[in-house]
Amino acid sequence: MNFCTTDFGRSYLYFRTDGTDHTPRMQIDAVCRLSTQGLTRHFYLTCPCICEEMYRESGLIHEPASEFTLIAVPGEQFLMTKRFSSAAHDLRCAFRLGDAMPTHDGHNARMTELDVKLAHYPKVQAIKTYHEFRAALLENCPMNVRTRFALSDGTEVVLEYPARTVNIAHDREAWQIDAGPVLLPLCDTATGVEPGLEVEKLGTGYLVFNRADYAEAILRRAVILPEGGSTSFYDSRRNFDCCNEVFAASE
Q1: Is 79 exposed, middle or buried (0-12, 13-18, 19+ CB in 10 A)?
Q2: Digit-coded pLDDT (tens) for 12-55
Q3: H or E, element range at 132
Q4: pTM value?
C-alpha cells in the first residue's frame, strides 16, 4: 500500500462499541509501519477529541475534561489514551478487539468493530529540490512525508504523515518541516518496552527536519512541574539519522 498518496484529511478510523450502539469516525493523523523478520505491522494514530457524553440534551463534555486518542491495528487491537490537566490522572490502556474496557460512568464496554478507510490523492510527485519545495508550498499543494530509519535491534521503522506546517526561506535555498503529531517507537529497540500488546510500543510526538538524512523528534510524556504536580507534554528528545522523503500531492 502506497501511503505517500494518502489524503489524510479524508482518511478515517471507524469503530463501534456495545456500550453505546453507534459508530464514531476519527480522522487519521499518521501511520507507522514496523517491519522485523519479514513481518510488517501497520499502526494508525487518530486525531484527538474531547471526552464526551453521547446524545444528551446538555452536559456533553466530561468533568474533569480529558483528551482522547487511539493508536490502532484495524480488526485487532488498540491503545486508548485519555489525557487530563494532571498527568497523574492520565490513562494509557491497550486492548484487543472485544476486550472489556472502562468507561466514564464506571460500566465496562467492548469495542466490537475497528476499521480504517483511507482516501488517496490521484497523483503525488517526489520533491527533490528547493525550487520544487518552494513551488509546492506557494502553490498550496498538500504535502506528505515518509521518514525511514532502523532501530538498534534491526526493526525497520517507516513513518508516513502529512506535512501540515512547512517553511520556505526567501533569502537562501532552505526549507523546513515541523510535522506532527506522528507515531514514534517509545524506545530505540522494539523489545525495549515490555508491552502486553504491540500498540504499547508506540507514542506520539513531533518531527522537525530540513534535510533528507536527519531529523529531531520530541515525544510526549508525563512532565513533573517545578511548582509541583505533573502534566503531559513533549519533553523526551531524540536526534537521529534517517531518510526523509517529501511528496507534493494533486487533489
Answers
A1: buried
A2: 999 998 878 889 999 999 999 999 988 999 999 999 999 999 99
A3: helix 130-138
A4: 0.93
